[in-house]
Amino acid sequence: MTGIRPYKRALDRLQTAGFRPTRQRLGLARLLFEGEHRHVTAEQLHTEAMGTDLRVSLATVYNTLNQFTAAGLLREVVVESGKSYFDTNTADHHHFFLEGTGRLEDIAADDIVVQNLPQPPKGTRVARVDVIVRLAEDDGEAA
Amino acid sequence: MTGIRPYKRALDRLQTAGFRPTRQRLGLARLLFEGEHRHVTAEQLHTEAMGTDLRVSLATVYNTLNQFTAAGLLREVVVESGKSYFDTNTADHHHFFLEGTGRLEDIAADDIVVQNLPQPPKGTRVARVDVIVRLAEDDGEAA
DNA sequence: ATTAATGCAAAATCTTTGCACTTTC
DNA sequence: GAAAGTGCAAAGATTTTGCATTAAT
Q1: Which UniProt keywords are listed (chains A, B) (predicted)?
Q2: Which parts of the protein come within 7 Å of strand D, by CB position?
């Protein structure tokens, strides 16, 4: 037995972060946090919400994603110029990005070794290191 | 003596890539390729062009940057969701990104060691590995 | 002359914002 | 019933596109 139901988990997260657990926020939090880690765009999450009982506007989805990100519940991943992806995995890790499909996949931090990072310019400190392994469809290279 | 004037260099680049050396393209190519390597947005380059004798529309700047990128003369660097940066350095290398100012700085490929890259998912191949070292203003940590 | 490139303005995307209405505490 | 949150539509920001005009071969 887990002892904590998913619903309770999502609720806790919201309250710990100091958010009022409104219907919309709770619904989005459940979609985001109840299953495996995931990468979503606002549009995707909105569509998904519409598919369930949850009625929420796209603007609220954007606002909520931004609030969650600011609160450290989500992390934004920038891989395409015109699009924002939000990652439910806020631990230190990296990404595969499949160009074309726009699919993102996690790479655990220990799976990549980044060494010899040069000193950051004076007056700055390293906030984060993002490694993006861009993938292409591997169609036909066998002779 | 260099033997090749900057103008000629930009012209050669265009022609080698199969572009008609129009006034606009040549002007933009000179702004991009005559000095040191640089990182520009379309907006920046357009503003800069206006500052010189070169009259060119923003749409043409976008088109030109995209054409140059497709031809391998430029490389797009994605670091902020809503903005496209173009890098005149097409060699394998990485970036410092100073959040806040939006400033990009190159890190030579040999200056970072990326090891243990996991196998890419079946049916894909690694097109490129981007390392982005995100920097923050280091205001006051000394006691 | 033919063909490609440019400029403009309009459209397309993605995201944020203002404000009246609704919900939570 | 205060204060915060939501929805909608409008506004912003960035980038692309359609089409008549202009320039390059």
Answers
A1: Cytoplasm, DNA-binding, Iron, Metal-binding, Repressor, Transcription, Transcription regulation, Zinc
A2: A 19-20, 22-25, 55-57, 59-60, 63-64, 81-82; B 20-23, 41-43, 58-59, 62-63, 66, 82-84
Given pLDDT bands bounded at 50, 70 and 90, which one contains residue A143?
very low
What does the pLDDT average to over A90-106? 93
Quick check: is B142 in a domain? no
Q: Give me the CATH number covering residue A37.
A: 1.10.10.10
d(CA A14, CA B24) in angstroms, rounded, equals 54
Q: Which range of residues forms the domain containing residue A56?
A: 5-135
Helices (H), B52-120: 58-70
Q: Strand C footprint at Cβ < 7 Å?
A: A 20-23, 41-43, 58-59, 62-63, 66, 82-84; B 19-20, 22-25, 55-57, 59-60, 63-64, 81-82
- Between A113 and A78, the more confident residue is A78
State residue A114's pLDDT score.
86
Contact between B81 and A66 under an 8 Å Cβ cutoff? The reply is no
Give Cβ neighbours of residue B93 (< 8 Å, ≥ 6 apart): B106, B107, B108, B109
- Chain B CB contacts of A134 under 8 Å are 126-130
pTM, two decimal places? 0.89
Domain membership of residue A142 (yes or no) is no
Is residue A35, in this structure, part of any structural domain at all? yes
- Total domains, chain A: 1
